[in-house]
Structures are given as structure tokens and as C-alpha cells.
Amino acid sequence: MAYIAVLGHGVVGSGVLEVLTTHTASITKRAKEEIKVKYILDLKDFPGLPYSDCFTKDFQVILNDPEIQIVVEVMGGLHPAYDFVKACLENGKSVVTSNKELVAKKGAELLAIAQRNNLNFLFEASVGGGIPIIRPISQCLAANEVTEIAGILNGTTNFILTKMIREQMTFGDALALAQKLGYAERDPRADVEGDDACRKICILASLAFGTHVYPDSVYTEGITKITLEDVDFADVWGGVIKLIGSVKMLESGQVHIMVCPMFVHRGSQLASVDDVFNGIMVRGDATGDVVFYGKGAGKLPTASAVVADVIDCVKHFKARKYLFWDEAKPNYIADFGSMKTSAYVRVAAESGDAAYSAAESVFGSVTRLLAKKPVESEAGFTVSGLTENELQEKLAALEERGVRVLNRIRISDY
Ligand SMILES: NC(=O)C1=CN([C@@H]2O[C@H](COP(=O)(O)OP(=O)(O)OC[C@H]3O[C@@H](n4cnc5c(N)ncnc54)[C@H](OP(=O)(O)O)[C@@H]3O)[C@@H](O)[C@H]2O)C=CC1
Ligand SMILES: N[C@@H](CC=O)C(=O)O
């Protein structure tokens, strides 16, 4: 019998209990041992559940129980999750977590503690919800040199964009629905401002390239500035707007990493990833592009990934699974301002034509987009072949001429 404790009985935690109780027989067969939840830590009371007697509010009870070999952390946030997970790893307990904030900010340190103590620290659910991605990168694609990863990594924002585009739902209503369905973070600003996708691309970059990338070193933009006018311009350009997290290994040995909304061409596999689904493209030198697709958030998809990690832990009590990356190193993240970019820009002046001719004289050559539902004072165009810094300078020059820059969205080449 393998005894485990679950920290947090929210969306994911309750899903973990549901999966463990509904699939007990098959899970026991696969783990070759019965998995029994001995404790559930939560701040609230949950009377009337078949496992109500497992609840505790005291983490020390779990930490000090030698029978507990695996702790599942699904509380979220950095504190006290980090303190609890670290204490578990220092006290001989393997840890499974869905907490991307924890892995993105403390992964290198926690992996080192796990390695030192011959324990597992597994986090399949931290990226892509129910999509297998951590194990495929660390095991199935291990013969490749991964050169690039790009994808739709946040279910909530993809759900919001889909609802806005397909059903003309307002941003606020779509977000409220995503929260109701259990997709959003406790503080949904982490979803809509891009921080959640940033944490996930940091985890994938750290895993694929072996060096920890911290979220605060990554250029990050969310979806809050996107309007239906931008959606219309993306459509006439030939694509859709998606929040993309991407990382690319450069010849210099530095990584170009960012999170931002992008125009994605209709022909791209990522363009048809809608709703709460995520799509992640991993480019390997031997495999070429491998694309992973599935539900990126929600109770049962996420619980599925968590419980699979628990099963893996039980099967590897003695032979630790090898998952590791080194601490961050200086000058590893390429200077964002020097990177080449292509972008769509939406501007306004006394008339759309006036805004466009100002853009032509500042940028030289631009490609005008003609909106299906034009706004009298606005114009949209695309530019390419500039660095991020040059683009910023040109946009500032436009503003100096009295042209308002309403939005700027990068164009992806995926
Ligand atoms: N929801 C999803 O689709 C996905 C979530 N994740 C990640 O999984 C983690 C959990 O997410 P989710 O289940 O949605 O979050 P919830 O907020 O639904 O659940 C968290 C639970 O943990 C409890 N909790 C928080 N702090 C403590 C504490 N100090 N001691 C005891 N209990 C505590 C909360 O209680 P209370 O409510 O009283 O504060 C709540 O019941 C997060 O890191 C999230 O980013 C990952 C993939 C998908
Ligand atoms: N809030 C996250 C939950 C899963 O990681 C998302 O929407 O993707």
C-alpha cells in the first residue's frame, strides 16, 4: 500500500480524489500497489464526502507521518506551497505538483533537493493540463536537440479569445465563464496578463535546454488590449489571434523567449486550437515538428496528469526518475530589443487614410490591411524585417506626428 497526502481540495485536488476513487482498480494494477489517500490538507471543511475523515488543517501531521511517501501539492501559489514542498523533499517524501508558479520560480532548487535525497519531484500537470508534454520532452524526444518550442499554453485566454471571436461574447463575460468552469487561476490576472503562459514556457525552456529560465526575465504581454477591430484585421490578414509562448535556441547559445498575442496564419496547426484546448509545437532536429494537443485546463484533465505522476512515483520509489535542469546562468536570455520581428499595427488619426500615409512615411514600406468592418479614423497595416527596438522607435515617431498607436500585435511564423 502506498500512502499519499493531497494538499488542497479545490478544482484540481477534488479531481485527483475523483480519479483515484473512480479508477481504483486500474490504477492499482498499473502502479502494482494500492494508492491510498491518508490526508487531505485544506483550509475549509468538506463534510459529507466519502473521504471527509481524511481532512486535516495541520501540515505538520502530514510531514511527520513516516507512512506518507508521496505528497501531491495542488494548492497553488508560491507560499506556503514552496515551504511545504521543500519540507517534504527534505523529509524523504516525493512530491507531485500541478503548480506552475512553483516550478517556474523554484524548479531548479527543488529538483536539486529531490536529486540529493533520491526522491521524485514530478510536475506533468504544470504545463498543458491533461496533455502529456513534460514526459515526452524529457523522455520520448530525448534523442533530439530541441531547437524551438511554441504554443498556446493558457486555456483561459484561448477560451476567452474563442468566445469573443465566435460568439461576440464580451471579454468580461468570457472570463467569468472560464472562472466558473474552473479554468482560471485564483487571480485571473495571471491568465489574462500572460503570466501563467510565461511560467509554462519557462518550465518547457528549462526542461528542453537544461538551464532554468525565471519568469521575470521573459518579455510577457497578455490579451487585455485585444479588441474586435484587431480580430477583424487578423481575419483579413488571413489568420487568428492567439496568445503564444515561444522559446528558440539561437546559434549564440542564448535563448529568445517571449509570451505575447500573435497573428497566426489560418494554415498553421495552432490556428485551429480553440476553446480551453492548448497546442504545443516542439521542433526537434531529428523529428522535425511534433505537435501536442488537448485540454489545457479543467478539473479532470489536470487530475489525470497529476495521478499519472503519482503512479509513476509509486513505480519508481527505488529507481528515481531522472528529471533535472541547472540553475540559471548570466547572459543566457537574448536581448529582446535586438530580436527581429514582424507585426501588425492599428493606428488612428483624423482619418484612416491620414493615419496610413503617416505610417508609410515613417516606416517606408508597409502593407495595408482593409478591415471588413472599417472604423472611419483607423488604419491597419503590417511591417516586417525590423528589430523590436526599431519597431518601438517607429511607433514613437508615429505618435510624435499625432497618430495614435492603438495596438501592435506580432506576426508568428509557426
Ligand atoms: N484549474 C486548472 O485547470 C489547473 C490548475 N493548475 C494549478 O493547480 C493548482 C491548483 O489549482 P486549482 O485547483 O484550480 O485551485 P483552487 O483554488 O481551486 O484550489 C486550491 C485549494 O487549495 C486550498 N488552499 C490554498 N492555500 C492553502 C493552504 N495554505 N492550506 C491548505 N489549503 C490551501 C484552497 O482553499 P481556499 O479556497 O479556502 O483558499 C483551495 O481549496 C494551481 O497551482 C493551478 O495553477 C494546473 C493546471 C490546470
Ligand atoms: N489557468 C490555467 C490553468 C491551467 O494551467 C489555464 O487557463 O491554462
How are helices and strands ordered from N to C?
EHHEEHEHEHEHEHHHHEHEEEEHEHEEHE
Q: What's the CATH C level of the largest domain?
A: Alpha Beta
Q: What would the CATH topology of the largest domain be?
A: Dihydrodipicolinate Reductase, domain 2
Rg? 23 Å
> For the record, what is the CATH homologous superfamily label of the largest domain?
Dihydrodipicolinate Reductase, domain 2
Q: What's the assembly state of these chains?
A: single chain
Strand content: 25-35%
Low-confidence stretches: none
N- to C-terminal distance: 47 Å
Number of helices: 14
How many structural domains does the protein architecture include?
3
Query: How many distinct beta strands?
Result: 16
Describe this structure in words.
- Keywords: Amino-acid biosynthesis, Methionine biosynthesis, NADP, Oxidoreductase, Threonine biosynthesis.
- GO terms for molecular function: homoserine dehydrogenase activity.
- Pathway: Amino-acid biosynthesis; L-threonine biosynthesis; L-threonine from L-aspartate: step 3/5; Amino-acid biosynthesis; L-methionine biosynthesis via de novo pathway; L-homoserine from L-aspartate: step 3/3.
- This protein has helices spanning about 10-20, 25-30, 60-65, 80-90, 100-115, 135-140, 155-165, 170-180, 190, 195-210, 230-235, 300-315, 350-365, 390-400, and strands spanning about 1-5, 35-40, 55, 70-75, 95, 120, 145-150, 220, 240-250, 255-265, 275-285, 290-295, 340-350, 365-370, 380-385, 405-410.
- It is built from 14 helices and 16 strands.
- The model has no long low-confidence stretch (mean pLDDT about 95).
- It folds into 3 domains: about 1-130 and about 300-315, NAD(P)-binding Rossmann-like Domain (Rossmann fold); about 135-295, Dihydrodipicolinate Reductase, domain 2; about 335-410, Alpha-Beta Plaits (2-Layer Sandwich), CATH 3.30.70.
- With about 425 residues, the chain is α/β, with parallel strands linked by helices.
- Strand 9 and strand 10 form a beta hairpin.
- Strands 7, 8, 9, 10, 11, 12, 13, 14, 15 and 16 form a 10-stranded mixed β-sheet that branches. It has a 6-stranded parallel β-sheet with strand order 3-2-1-4-5-6, sandwiched between helices.
- The chain is about 35% helix and about 25% strand.
